């Protein structure tokens, strides 16, 4: 058993002063086979603590169905940390932000159209209680007060940038305490007056988040908590990327200068991120501050360890600064994981989406389009199909409104794309670039909508996916829809045929079987492909998109097998050639 407490302006661990030197590593962004590697590198850099969020949507993917296996085995991750002599800071808030889908909240919360997030709305609190009843007993034996490594736990995450419901914060605090969480509790917020006033709780340690100007940040924190230790709970030493933007880079000279100034002031630090990892599957988040901006698959973050866990110049510079303040541990670094160049792989089989619907989904009839959440779906795609009677004069289709990107087809022929950021979410029905009438026999309208990631931060978080209201042909709402949910969580039922040339845009699954002699990390480059999702041996690697900045998907070696491997690519628009490249380097920007 151990104690970690605040006494005056310092932290005490078992009665001795301690400065927290922590780095963020999210277990759910790294394959479990690499957890030890990343934690060893953290310790070798001079850090004494690892910090991680706990993602609710990973652990309760369906209401009442819990998952703590594989990449979700947070207990194993924490036990690895204690084996290596690291303390653990855990942030199990219902909400985590983290550029993670819906900020870690489970999508099924939105089945309740009246849901009020991050507040004292009883149905929301009831869901949290059910989750905590499962989570907290798993964490309790791992608290330092019970001989484990967890020294501190967060109550909520950057709440002051969202709301000011102090009853809600107090409820979460008591929910933890009554379940035996008797370690130091804390909050973390931006360092302006608004954030601190909204996010602080009396008698609870407050920490601040920032990337620069540490003197200004800590000065503001001391206005609100003058007699407590100074801690930056998120030192943003890099940044994340949105699709279509440039890759963010922060030079290490700037990073270590700010870090050194913090350490000189006696502050404790948590690097966000020490190692970012990957938004595998459909778990990337999105931002909305007047414009919807989905986050890319890579969460490299330009961190001390890159996406594939390699040591960078930034790592070496950070380690050098830390060595000025503490004696570096004698830790033998694990060998660098080899990067493999498997070369070109040709995809030789295909299964068109529209020919495969019955193998992927059970159709459901509804009078109006319904959101994914109302259909019991969390992630992926959803297809809406209806008939437009004819004859009709030429007119526009209006989607009211699309979340987040829709491909429209008339009698199976691609008409165009409607995106969420388009203010006028309309599309002229076209045929060979000529506006067309609806023929006397009518026509079938199909709309394939992609959920590109729920908003993870700010006022737009209540973000249902699919078509939220309806579809109009000019002024008339269209009714009687057939809906196929397409989460793409099981592709085993697909029936593949030999590859056929596609003259028109049609969403298609492409398949290749390839052999390797030795498994290692590699990067899947889809040169000449447009937009879609890639799967290795049934594992969803995440999204690709030719607008960048990410040009290749990270493939951890443990996902590969010596001998035969299967690659499936779901391409929405089409490619120049059915060939991909497995290369030995990442491409960001």
Automatic annotation (TrEMBL):
GO biological process, alphabetically ordered: carbohydrate metabolic process
Gene3D superfamilies for the chain: Galactose-binding domain-like, Glycosidases
InterPro entries named among the record's database cross-references: B-gal_1-like, BetaGal1-like_ABD1, BetaGal_gal-bd, Galactose-bd-like_sf, GH, Gly_Hdrlase_35_cat, Glyco_hydro_35_CS, Glycoside_Hdrlase_35
Domain Beta-galactosidase 1-like first all-beta: 369-486
Keyword Hydrolase carried by entry: yes
Active-site residue list: 158 (proton donor), 234 (nucleophile)
Listed Pfam families: BetaGal_ABD_1, BetaGal_gal-bd, Glyco_hydro_35
Domain Glycoside hydrolase 35 catalytic: 10-324
Domain of life of the native organism: Bacteria
Matches recorded under PROSITE patterns: GLYCOSYL_HYDROL_F35
Record carries keyword DNA damage: no
GO molecular function: beta-galactosidase activity
Keywords: Glycosidase, Hydrolase
Family: Belongs to the glycosyl hydrolase 35 family.
Protein name: Beta-galactosidase
